Automatic annotation (TrEMBL):
It holds the Pfam family YjgF_endoribonc. CDD domains: YjgF_YER057c_UK114_like_1 (cd02199). Gene3D superfamilies: RutC-like. It comes from Aristophania vespae. This is RidA family protein. Residues 6-146 form the Endoribonuclease L-PSP/chorismate mutase-like domain.
Amino acid sequence: MSSSAEGRIAELGISLPQAAAPVANYVPVVQTGNLLVVSGQLPFEKGELLAKGKLGENVSEEEGIACARACFLNIVAQIKAALNGDLSRVKRIVRLGGFIACSADFVNHAHIMNGASNMAVDIFGEAGKHARAAVGVPSLPLNAPVEVEAIFEVS
């Protein structure tokens, strides 16, 4: 497998989406020092949410994992745009924060977030290993089942 993020993306057959414009009064990425803080990304693929609803109700765990993966690919699209297309500047992923819209009795938040975490390591290798949180919430914007935010260290 390639040692660069771009090479891994190509080997995995992934087409990164275009970085989405913000839907409210915020910016998608803020750089402070050598950190990029990426606003929460929803599971959009080709302009549509992959699923709507809640885990433990009308969204399956497999759909939730796919949503977390899509959120992470949208994060990569945002950082690529912020870095003028140069993913080689990523030194490591510091943290991922995952929000899982779910029923009160749903307990597999970490399993859902593995969709994003596994993709992080698949694309960035060792630099993709990160701290994280996976939190259940009653609802998310646009009725999305998953939202993921991130902090990256860059050169």
